[in-house]
Amino acid sequence: MTLAGVANLAVNGLVEGAVIALPALALTLVMSIARFPNAATGDLMTLGAYVAVGVQAVLVGSAFGAPLLGMAVATLAAVVACAIVSVAAYELIFRRLGRAAMVASLLASIGLAFLIRSLITLVVGHEQHTFALPLVRAWNFGGLRVLPTDLAIGAVALVVLAAVFAWLHFGRSGRLLRAVADNPDLARLSGIRAQRLMWLLWALAGVLSAIGGVLLGVKSVVMPELGWELLLPAFAAMILGGIGSPAGAVAGALLMGVGQELSVPLVGPTYKIAVAFAVLFVVLLLRPAGLFGRPELAR
């Protein structure tokens, strides 16, 4: 394979990894504070994609029917819908189960995932949908062919990730959220109002899931299994980077995305995900807590 071909695969892997990083970060944030893996993250992505594609279809032919403006409005609607559903799930289900019931919360999140997917299927059926976006030619940079759509997807994902990390490190509520994640008992004794932060946490998880679902829907097609199929790679990215490490989740997602794509010439597109999990196993053998993980959360 030529150098340009390898570069093409690497760019595709970075775009795919950036999309995986959004649900992986949502999983990591919930795991850091609520102490359980939220299996409903993937179906929240699906919900966001369906809300966005439905809103965009309604906007076609209106004043908001321009592709960029319509996508912005549709994505905003998806973000609001998923944030509301995520916070409602916390209030109605996960808060009642409590922090100690990790297995019960995990099972409840799996049940919630099936519920969301079943409702989506009941309302819209199993048909595949696509976003109404104009067809564009790939840009050629000395043999490196990149679709403008992929560049836009990667740019949006990276901007969202950068905004979340800036908020976590420089925003007051973000720093408080990190304090609760590091030591919840000390944070409570310090007078931090954890309840409001939990609402914020679950809203943020919904926002990340919605944007990830919209970007994935733009890159492929919108169908009921859209987010569920990305949930396993997102879990793997979280574990590879280290459970409880937001930066690790993003790094793990990017490594998985690039690793998968670079393995295509060797194993083909069908088995590329197996290579990513092989890398995961090797890393965990050397570092059981992941690349940047917190050992106490990996137990």
List keywords for this structure.
ABC transporter involved in vitamin B12 uptake, BtuC; 13 helices; 299 residues; mainly alpha; two-stranded antiparallel ribbon; single chain; 2 strands
Task: Walk me through what this model shows.
The protein has 299 residues and is mainly α. The chain has a single domain (3-126, 167-298), classed as ABC transporter involved in vitamin B12 uptake, BtuC. The protein contains 13 helices and 2 strands, in the order H-H-H-H-E-E-H-H-H-H-H-H-H-H-H. A two-stranded antiparallel ribbon has the order 1-2. Helix 1 packs antiparallel against helix 10 (246-262) and helix 3 runs antiparallel to helix 4. The longest helix is centred in the first third of the chain and has 32 residues, at 3-34. It starts with a helix and ends with a helix.
User: How far apart lie the N and C ends?
Assistant: 42 Å
CATH architecture: Orthogonal Bundle
Q: How large, in whole angstroms, is the Cα Rg?
A: 19 Å
CATH top-level class: Mainly Alpha
**Overall structural domain count:** 1
Overall 3D shape? globular
CATH topology: ABC transporter involved in vitamin B12 uptake, BtuC
Name the assembly state.
single chain
Question: Please, how many helices?
Answer: 13
Beta-strand fraction estimate = under 5%
Helix content: over 70%
In the sheet with the most strands, the strands line up as: 1-2
Task: Break the fold down into its secondary structure elements and pairings.
Layout lengths: L2 H32 L6 H19 L7 H31 L4 H23 L14 E3 L2 E3 L1 H23 L1 H11 L1 H6 L4 H26 L6 H16 L4 H17 L1 H4 L4 H15 L8 H4 L1
Helix pairs in contact: 1-5, 1-8, 1-9, 1-10, 2-3, 2-4, 2-8, 2-9, 3-4, 3-8, 5-6, 5-8, 6-8, 9-10, 9-12, 10-12
